[in-house]
Design brief:
It contains 6 helices and 14 strands. The protein is of the alpha+beta class.
Length: 259
């Protein structure tokens, strides 16, 4: 009887340890035994909770025909998701998502619809995802199809090591600068521009050759002052409040000269 009780005690103790280990793996993506499956469970959980996180969004930056912006979702002040959306009009778009735990990348995904060169308006739809453990590349996989509905039905296929970019560099400091409009993404007033009877407030950064355009529906005192004496505002930093319409259109709400 004593031996039986000891044996039962050992079994219960082992089960308790196993359950504790299981919880640790579930709670932390940085666990040693992490797999692509547990990473997906973690990131799908983040997506479900995304609307409850603090959200930051950058202005829409334009560089030639390419427009792009960043979004960040933060839990308790720490970023857990960064997103980058870029649109090239008829040439297609790409959307990148970075999932983090404790500041380290655990999953990078990219979805794109890009015009096939020298084709008659045909596009390639592609999705790829890169898995990381403790910030170190684990594996990559992708799928592609002629349209989005066909893409959804396809499974991901693991990329050959020679095809996967195992040394991707993720610069989250630059993303934060883009979100805040600071550092290399600092913007200053360029001009008021009229296009097809619509007026836009244009900010620019000459070092990056990027512009930001706000559609002015209702001019305020700042816009009226700029219209009267634009030379006084040229190169000055402005504080702008705006709202998004669709993916890339920004509507000017109010503004002031930055101190």
């Amino acid at each position: 009887m004593v031996l039986l009780m000891i044996s039962l005690g050992i079994i219960i103790s082992c089960n308790s340890v196993n359950q504790s280990s299981s919880l640790t793996v579930k709670d932390s993506i940085n666990a040693i035994s992490i797999t692509d499956t547990s990473i997906l469970i973690y990131t799908e959980g983040l997506l479900k909770l995304k609307d409850s996180f603090e959200k930051l969004e950058s202005p829409v930056y334009s560089k030639g025909d390419y427009a792009y912006f960043y979004s960040a979702y933060k839990k308790d002040g720490e970023p857990v998701i960064y997103q980058e959306y870029g649109d090239s009009g008829e040439y297609g778009f790409q959307e990148k998502t970075y999932f983090l735990e404790e500041g380290e990348i655990v999953l990078y995904t990219e979805k794109s619809k890009l015009l096939i060169p020298e084709s008659k308006g045909d596009y390639q739809h592609k999705e790829s995802r890169y898995f990381y453990r403790n910030g170190i590349f684990l594996k990559a996989e992708e799928k592609s199809a002629a349209n989005d509905s066909a893409l959804l039905k396809l499974p991901f296929v693991k990329l050959d090591e020679n095809l996967a970019d195992e040394k991707k560099v993720f610069d989250f400091t630059e993303i934060e600068s883009a979100l805040q409009g600071t550092g290399k993404y600092a913007l200053t007033f360029n001009k008021l521009n009229t296009l097809n009877t619509k007026q836009y407030l244009m900010l620019s950064n000459n070092n990056l050759s990027i512009d930001v355009a706000y559609l002015i529906k209702t001019p305020d005192s700042l816009i009226n002052d700029i219209a009267l004496q634009p030379a006084l505002y040229k190169g000055k930093k402005l504080n702008i409040e705006f709202e998004k319409q669709g993916k890339t259109l920004m509507i000017y709400k109010s503004g002031s000269l930055s101190n």
